[in-house]
Amino acid sequence: MGVTDQAKAIRHLERIGYGRLSPYWQPLQERIPDPDDATRTIRTDQFQAGAEFRHAVDLYLFDKQLRLLFLDAIERIEVALRVDLAHALGNRDLFAHRSVAYLDPNRANANFKGTTRHLSWLAKADDSVDRCKDDWVSEFYNTYTPPMPIWMAVEAWDFGTLSWLLEMAHPNDRFAIAKRYNLLPDTLVSWIKSLAFVRNISAHHSRLWNTGIINQPQVPKAFEAPRMVHIGNDVVQRNRVYGAAAVASYLAKRINPGTSWSGRMKAHWLSFPEMPFASAAQGGFLEGWDQEAIWA
Fold first, then answer.
1. Mean pLDDT value of segment 227-240
2. Cβ(213)–Cβ(198) under 8 Å?
3. 245: which residues sit within 8 A by CB, 6+ positions away?
4. Are 167 and 106 in contact (CB under 8 A)?
5. Which domain of life is it from (predicted)?
6. How many separate helices (H) and strands (E) can be counted in the chain?
7. 77 within 8 A of 252, measured Cβ to Cβ
8. To 10 degrees, what angle do helices 117-131 and 159-168 make?
């Protein structure tokens, strides 16, 4: 790998760290056929001709901004989801989140690691409240007897905890919440889980731009979100970050029609650094993606 400015390269390594920067030069490394699987290739320690250290740094900086953009959108979606869940479940009971009687019993009672999904979730949800250092938590415990009602507890839960509760919510509540976004319940649950995965990567400052999305977003029906049907046209769009970006764009616009987020994400990917061996397509942003209506 070429290094045109050794002093600058050393400064980058000292500031970013070898372990954090090394994933960004993987696209620059040579690949050879896998001797155990003719359909695959494996990465070697050798770099392709023309690979330069600055290419890895450019990818790192691009990815850093990408994570910040996602966190910006997900924060808005998270706040909206908190309100949705607190309102829907709170109308049933102040402590609806604590009782399967107010949830979907088939999902809440499903086996999960030796217990039920609901009990596992409730332990995590209560732990989030206990670990919360905000003043309102201590004020509650100094004034009232636990447990905390959902309209308060929901403020201490992270995005993953919210996504679990949405999935276990009473079918009527899931439907009502999804209707706000003009989606079917299972589509919304799938999309929220995709964004929860992206949020975890972003919050831990891990590589995002070309990572595989484990919780791939479900392709919606045409009558739900016609602007989003295209994510099913190519598997790469769904199993890379493009699908999650389109989901974030859709939900952000439903929450705030005047948001500039879609334009900022579009501009960011159109500014993908020019270099050999790496392209926006590796993140699922295939040719013509910017002409899709979701980015208008």
1. 94
2. yes
3. 70, 265, 269
4. no
5. Bacteria
6. 13, 4
7. yes
8. 150
